Amino acid sequence: MIYKEGDKMDDFDYQMLKYKFALTKLETEINILTEDYAFKHKYNPVEHIKSRIKTRESVLQKLQKKNCEMTLENIKEHVHDMIGIRIVCSFLSDVKNIVHMIEKSKHLLVKKEKDYITSPKDSGYTSYHLIVYVPLCLEEEEFIEAEIQIRTVAMDFWASLDHKIQYKFSEEIPEEIKTELYNCSLAIKALDHKMLLLSEIVNRYK
Fold first, then answer.
1. In the chain, how many domains are there?
2. Judging by beta carbons within 10 Å of its beta carbon (0-12, 13-18, 19+), is residue 191 exposed, middle or buried?
3. 79: domain CATH number?
4. Is 53 part of a structural domain of the chain?
5. Which of 29, 65, 97, 171 is the most exposed place for a label (fewest CB within 10 A)?
């Protein structure tokens, strides 16, 4: 439960219910888009999809970093990934196709894009992020923000490893480990390009 003195408990409960509704709608739209793509192209670009709504602890940590109180208004204003979906695909080309698919959707509105594949983070992290609005029509129309991360299996493996290492250190990660992680990200990038080349060669034989 997310609650701050001065806010009504019912307001928080209802907002969390809206996030649940919006996630369900977003999951449904992505499933429709990917099944439509698979039917038309005789190929499904998606390996697997994961989704979540942020926990109270994660929200609190994010707001504390921004020096904000734990209020409903601050959550709406500063937490743009209360809803998160991760789409994992096989090849680099699949990432572009899925992004294009979402951009063309008439049921989602793209607010912001961050291409960490073309411009990786300093740590070596690579992925493609979209912040989208999910329209929710209850008593009145409301647009709920959600974050969509699209990455290859190789990128997802690196990100999972990085996440586990981050939690092993309460303070700054040693430089030796940062360097090795970054070197691994370069190897992952090279592997993605090799797998894409292999996919293109296979397609020539079809």
1. 1
2. middle
3. 3.30.460.10
4. yes
5. 171
Q: Are 199 and 192 in contact (CB under 8 A)?
A: no
The whole-model pTM stands at 0.88
Whole-angstrom Cα distance, residue 51 to residue 84?
A: 6
Q: Is residue 28 part of a domain?
A: yes
Query: What is the per-residue pLDDT across 110-143, written as a single tens digit (0 to 9) for each?
Result: 999 999 999 999 999 999 999 999 999 888 889 9
Pairwise CA distance, residues 75 & 149, whole Å: 20
147 flagged as catalytic: yes
Q: What is the mean pLDDT of the chain?
A: 91
Cβ neighbors of 99 (< 8 A, separation 6 or more) are 113, 128, 130, 150
- For residue 8, what pLDDT is reported? 56
For the stretch 12-27, pLDDT in tens is: 788 889 999 999 999 9
Catalytic-labelled residue, pool 5, 147, 172, 200:
147
Q: Which portions of the chain are predicted below pLDDT 50?
A: 1-6
Residue-number span of the structural domain to which 160 is assigned: 9-204
List Cβ neighbours of 16 (8 Å cut-off, separation of 6 or more).
Answer: 1, 2, 53
- Residue 1: inside a domain, yes or no? no
105 within some domain: yes
